[in-house]
Amino acid sequence: MSEPIRVLHILQRMEAGGTQALLMNNYRKIDRTKVQFDFFVEYPNKQFYDDEIVSLGGKVYYNSVRLDGKIKKFQKNLANVLKTGKYKIVHVHTYSIGYFVLKVAKKCGVPVRIVHSHNNETVHDSKYYLKLFMQKLYPIYATDFMACSTDAGKYLFKNRKFDVLKNSIDSKKFIFNQEVRKKARQELGVSDKFVVGHVGRLHPQKNHQFLLQVFAEIKKKKPNSVLLLAGEGPLKNEIVDQVKNLGLEDSVKFLGNRKDINRLDQAFDVFILPSLFEGLGIVAVEAQAAGLPVLCSTGVSVDAKISPLFHFLSLDEAPTAWADKAIKITQDDLVHTNMESYVVNAGYDVTNTACWLQQYYLDKYQQATK
């Protein structure tokens, strides 16, 4: 094969999110002389990973369907890209309009049409029932099914057979190092603080409102506590207002999107993820890899539990109970130790998943072009 096969990934945008991290972690590790990734996105502006994609040999095709709602224009653009690029494989990560995407792909003769489930629930907002309807349509024109966890696969695909592609990480980058921790805490100005950490989009799914209530209780018990929030999103102004209303302006830091989560995790003392739901919760896997005690809601997939550092608590429990638990789990003997073996044994090291995914694409391509 003189040229690599090109897989077209279709999703909202290549922002700093869990799905995007999964794709990039594998993209960096695959043999790009054999398999290349391109991205067809639903927004017209450059995002967090776009420059890196281009540097790795990939292409990003921008669209504006999320802003103008012109689905026919979007489908026409997609058809042109599919025909010009002669794609044999599309991998779709956007269930809300995935039906329209896959319909075009089938019409254009793309033989391998993969649908991917990244969540085990849907936000209960004004578009909830429309989203459920689109979810039911999503798999109709698919040939293959993939999910980030068993929970996510069963949620979207019901009784259909699907493959699980674990949201893997580069485990060596997360190995705990005392000097890295010391330097990161100095840079953040939290050397003498009890640091509560959270990584996630500022979005209803992540449940920041409850997180802030929990942190307020932690602050009462440990006055030297600070909360570090990494991520951006549509709820930032609301979350900032809540911080002010709780009188926590001096104790909560908004760090924005970060490319050094492996270092940032090492600065934390405990990681809290009270999401309403998570297809997996890759940030919880990363935190465990860094030797952090992790406290998650029961909305997070059980597949994210890769070590004894992971703990569940129901959102029905009061913020005070969450605060007590968060403080208690920092006493575990495994905290701030080398957790690489746990990541590898659980199948979350990217070296293995990248090899699997690369061969998956190659096999599908070979079958489709016989």
Automatic annotation (TrEMBL):
Residue intervals passing through the bilayer = none
SUPFAM superfamilies from the UniProt entry: UDP-Glycosyltransferase/glycogen phosphorylase (SSF53756)
**Annotated Gene Ontology MF terms?**
glycosyltransferase activity
Q: Which UniProt keywords apply?
A: Transferase
Q: What is this protein called?
A: Glycosyl transferase, group 1 family protein
Keyword Transferase listed: yes
Source organism, top-level taxon: Bacteria
- Domain (Glycosyl transferase family) ranges: 181-339
InterPro entries, per database record:
Glyco_trans_1, Glycosyltransferase_grp1
